[in-house]
Write a structure and sequence with these properties.
This protein is α/β, with parallel strands linked by helices and 421 residues long. It has 14 helices and 24 strands. Helices cover 31% and strands 25% of the residues. Strands 22-23-1-24 form a 4-stranded mixed β-sheet, with helices on one face. A 4-stranded mixed β-sheet has the order 2-15-17-16. Strands 4-5-3-14 form a 4-stranded mixed β-sheet, covered by helices on one side. Strand 10, helix 6 and strand 11 form a beta-alpha-beta unit. Bound molecules: uridine-diphosphate-N-acetylglucosamine.
């Protein structure tokens, strides 16, 4: 298993280009199943989760051409299987996103239940409940969701909680359903909006994306389309936390600052000076960070996917930060590892209290999930001495060439190859 070795204490300086958003690209790739025509995508990040999705789509019979610089072309006119098997789904929960498209276009789908994962139980009951409301007949057998329907029928669905992939699955199912579907309590995340925009380019009739009420008028078929995936707001936020913790002066290119309101606001509160243009962000940090309390919420609130990184920044801040995780019940896995580097953090249920320390000291730490890994890298950049982050395959699931981008900013960071997991 590869590791990252970081020698902390270097200020970051220079420019990096932000990649396409993983969480927008995943549902968009699955949307290729909705049409027999070709989907041409740009700005698809090179990540392990994307490779897993492409492997799954190929297994279903989708022809996939992986071009240069994030270009991916997909054609699903010859789908040969309607089953997403356990060995692929277990490595990536987002595989559940093939359920809606397969069911609505082919009238049938068999998708393995994802099971638990490191950051919590994460059930898919809301996906199932919503599809049932649209008229699907669903049973769970041998660990698989088996769904059937002659043609889905539009109705009003109201998931019990705001769910991002749940909203996306229902939206994709509804675009080919008969009549009007209304999704109440819908997720407003920019990635949901990007998917809706892509679906509309394919000929779907989706309105209200970005609000909590999405209205979809079903159509008989969809065509091909070209689309550029939006910028990854979490990757951009991660670099901003890195400069906040290590100090320096960086510019992020190809970003979408308009999708990052809560992230920018909180990072600015720590003392990072931020300036934005339409697709760039400049960030400068010349002081010790100031502690900043926050709670994770659905968009437009502060994202759970940035909680670990902003916590890492708080570990070296002046003062005390109170951090409340509202979305996932077990998302403080990074706390023990940060503690091994000298961070002072107490957890009580969903609340972490971070008392800033003047310095962290490098240590060998273990990544436990994607964003936890990013927080350990940030801590390593700020720490005195050398930090080795083990099990960085988590990081490779969601960050494109992170160590290259950080090296470009002057960080002392290298990948040390290890044996296969
Ligand atoms: C998506 C993101 C993930 C992010 C999360 C929250 C993708 C591929 N992943 O995950 O990076 O951390 O949103 O912003 O876009 N829930 C249920 N039943 C369901 C569905 C969800 O109980 O059927 C619960 C979950 O356990 C969680 C909460 O609802 O507590 C929100 O989860 P959800 O928004 O669905 O997360 P994902 O879509 O899996």
């Amino acid at each position: 298993m590869d590791k990252l070795r970081i020698t902390g204490g270097q200020r970051l300086h220079g420019e990096v280009t932000i990649s396409g958003a993983k969480n927008a690209a995943l549902p968009i790739l699955c949307a290729s199943l909705l049409s027999g025509d070709t989907l041409e995508l740009d700005n698809v990040p090179e990540l392990n989760d994307i490779q897993t999705t492409l492997r799954l789509l190929r297994q279903l019979g989708v022809s996939v051409t992986n071009g240069k610089q994030g270009h991916v072309s997909l054609n699903a006119n010859n789908v040969t299987s309607l089953e997403a098997p356990y060995d692929l789904v277990k490595t990536m929960r987002a595989s559940i996103l093939v359920l809606g498209p397969l069911l609505t276009r082919f009238g049938e789908a068999r998708v393995s239940l994802p099971g638990g994962c490191a950051i919590g139980q994460r059930p898919v009951d809301q996906h199932i409940k919503g599809l049932e409301a649209l008229g699907a007949d669903i049973r769970i057998e041998h660990g698989y969701v088996i769904a059937k329907a002659t043609r889905l029928r539009g109705t009003t669905v109201r998931p019990d909680m705001v769910t991002v992939t749940g909203t996306e699955n229902l939206m994709m199912a509804a675009v080919l359903a008969e009549g009007r579907t209304i999704i109440e309590n819908a997720a407003c995340e920019p990635e949901v909006v990007d998917l809706a925009n892509l679906l509309n380019k394919m000929g779907a009739q989706v309105q209200g994306q970005g609000s909590s009420r999405i209205v979809i008028d079903g159509v008989d078929s969809l065509s091909g389309a070209s689309h550029r995936v939006i910028a990854d707001r979490i990757e951009a936020g991660t670099f901003l936390c890195a400069v906040g913790a290590a100090g320096g002066d960086i510019t992020l290119r190809h970003t979408a600052p308009d999708t990052m309101g809560a992230i920018l606001e909180k990072i600015e509160q720590t003392g990072v000076q931020i300036e934005c243009g339409p697709d760039w962000i400049q960030a400068r940090m010349d002081q010790r960070p100031v502690a900043c309390s926050f709670r994770t919420q659905e968009y437009p609130g502060f994202p759970t996917d940035m909680q670990a990184q902003l916590m890492a920044l708080n570990t070296v801040a002046e003062g005390t930060a109170v951090i409340v995780e509202n979305i996932f019940e077990n998302r403080f896995m990074h706390v023990l590892e940060l503690g091994r580097m000298g961070a002072d953090i107490d957890i009580d249920g969903a609340t972490a209290v971070v008392q800033g320390v003047t310095h962290l000291s490098g240590a060998t730490v273990m990544a436990t999930d994607l964003r936890a890994s990013a927080s350990l890298v940030i801590a390593g950049l700020a720490a005195q001495g050398t930090t080795t982050v083990e099990r960085i395959y988590h990081l490779d699931r969601g960050y494109e060439h992170m160590e290259n981008k950080l090296s470009q900013l002057g960080a002392q960071i290298e990948r040390v190859a290890g044996s296969t997991p």
